[in-house]
From TrEMBL:
It comes from the Eukaryota. This is Nucleolar protein 58. Signal peptide: none annotated. SMART domains: NOSIC (SM00931). It is found in: Nucleus, Nucleolus. Residues 408-450 are annotated as: Disordered. The keyword Secreted does not apply. Residues 283-401 form the Nop domain. It comes from Takifugu rubripes. Its main location: nucleus. GO terms for molecular function: snoRNA binding. Belongs to the NOP5/NOP56 family. Required for the biogenesis of box C/D snoRNAs such as U3, U8 and U14 snoRNAs. Part of the small subunit (SSU) processome, first precursor of the small eukaryotic ribosomal subunit. During the assembly of the SSU processome in the nucleolus, many ribosome biogenesis factors, an RNA chaperone and ribosomal proteins associate with the nascent pre-rRNA and work in concert to generate RNA folding, modifications, rearrangements and cleavage as well as targeted degradation of pre-ribosomal RNA by the RNA exosome. One of its GO terms (biological process) is ribosome biogenesis.
Length: 450
């Protein structure tokens, strides 16, 4: 039997000298306690050394993907093919299938082979001559770093890391912007309180404050690029009769610096949102069409990755983000939540409160299919998402129209119910009249007690 053993330095082919010892799997490690004992069990037949780290990385990545590299194919043809009657022991079943298919060599993989590989690894420095232990350790470390970098770069699970980071940063920017704008409005409101009521848009407010500075400059400042004409006229009128306090030039400078920060962060947020939208359309186009960029990115971020999200059933996708409410409902035996992050999708938002549960359930079912198609499918088109969204919109219109018919009372079901109610009321009236007549006749038939 021959053994194919992969190291960081190269490929090694060992010949098993005593195959009977492989049958004792539990005690095999005792035969490799010392280098002398190990040399009695296996003997090095050939060693193909890698020339550099690039070659070692190419061979390692080929093994990870279950492929045969050029060096390995050369070694197998050169050494193993000469002894075709010998079985080749390998550590990977997938690789064994490829070798058998491509080179027509008999491969074997069993618990005994796995134990033999572990034992060879423990004495590899003594079994492979001409390789110092320091050089072997350096090559192993270099290959480990290169292989980890390769996996991180090309792993399909890590492609959506950018989306997770982008949506988290977008949420952080929204919080910071809200704090900065609130601080700016309160701070400048001491000097010109009327401006906050006239200009409701936060970005336009900060830009106006940045252009104006002190309210006495409003009359001579042109705000036509920022505000419409009627609002600009209203601002100039309010500045003349403002009830705000006087502030120093240093205060105005600090407020203007704060406005600069708000404007810069707002511009960066717009740029980040465009980036997130493009990344979502590239990685998960069907999910994006179903629930939107932000909701889709939040679902991916909450699950950890697109592949993890694809493993969740539709019922989990529906309540993803509402874990606290779910466990609280289970603990108190109340109704479980109908939606989590999916509540913010446009399809759920535009329906009535009565139909939100139904639409969120249907949307979660279709979104789960879209997620799996994006994560595991080979196509990158969004036809499936567009088709399912059209079906959901048609179903939404049907539910809304049914609700309108019930409210107006023109539906067949309502007409039948009214007819049934009318007949029942007539029967009750006739029954009440009969009872009244009966009581009246009884009173007349009773004799007078005088």
């Amino acid at each position: 039997m021959l053994v194919l053993f992969e190291t960081a330095a190269g490929y090694a082919i060992f010949k098993v000298l005593d195959e009977s010892k492989l049958q004792q799997v539990d005690s095999l490690h005792k035969e490799f306690e010392t280098p002398e004992k190990a040399n009695k069990v296996v003997k090095l037949k050939h060693f193909e050394k890698f020339q550099d780290t690039t070659e070692a990385l190419a061979a390692a990545t080929a093994l990870v993907e279950g492929k045969i590299g050029k060096n390995l194919k050369k070694v197998l043809k050169k050494i193993v093919a000469k002894e075709a009657h010998e079985q080749l022991a390998i550590s990977d079943v997938k690789l064994g299938g490829v070798i058998k298919e491509k080179l027509d060599l008999s491969c074997i993989h069993s618990p005994a082979v796995c134990e033999l590989m572990r034992c060879i690894r423990s004495q590899v420095e003594s079994l492979i001559t001409g390789l110092p232990s320091r050089e072997m350790a350096a090559m192993s470390l270099g290959l480990a770093h290169s292989l980890s970098r390769y996996k991180l770069k090309f792993s399909p699970d890590k492609v959506d890391t950018m989306i997770v980071q982008a949506i988290s940063l977008l949420d952080d920017l929204d919080k910071e912007l809200n704090n900065y704008i609130m601080r700016c409005r309160e701070w400048y409101g001491w000097h010109f309180p009327e401006l906050g009521k006239i200009i409701t848009d936060n970005l336009a407010y900060c830009k106006s404050v940045r252009h104006v500075g002190d309210r006495t400059n409003v009359a001579t400042t042109d705000l036509s690029e920022i505000l419409p004409e009627e609002i600009e006229a209203e601002v100039k009128l309010a500045a003349e009769i403002s009830m705000g306090t006087e502030v120093s030039e240093q205060d105005i400078n600090n407020i203007m610096h704060l406005c600069d920060q708000v404007i810069e962060i707002s511009d960066y947020r717009t740029q980040l949102y465009d980036y997130l939208k493009n990344r979502m359309m590239a990685i998960a186009p069907n999910l994006t069409l179903m629930v939107g960029e932000l909701v889709g990115a939040r679902l991916i971020s909450h699950a950890g990755s697109l592949l993890n999200l694809a493993k969740h059933p539709a019922s989990t996708v529906q309540i993803l983000g509402a874990e606290k409410a779910l466990f609280r409902a289970l603990k108190t035996r109340k109704d479980t939540p109908k939606y989590g992050l999916i509540y913010h999708a446009s399809l759920v938002g535009q329906t009535t409160a009565k139909n939100k549960g139904k639409i969120s359930r249907m949307l979660a079912a279709k979104a789960a299919l879209a997620i799996r198609y994006d994560a595991l499918g080979e196509d990158t088109n969004a036809e499936m998402g567009a088709e399912n969204r059209a079906k959901l919109e048609a179903r939404l219109r049907q539910l809304e129209e049914r609700g309108i018919r019930r409210i107006s009372g023109t539906g067949k079901a309502m007409a039948k119910a009214d007819k049934y109610q009318h007949k029942r009321l007539q029967r009750r009236k006739r029954k009440r009249k009969r009872e009244q007549l009966k009581l009246r006749n009884q009173k007349k038939s009773q004799p007078s007690q005088r």
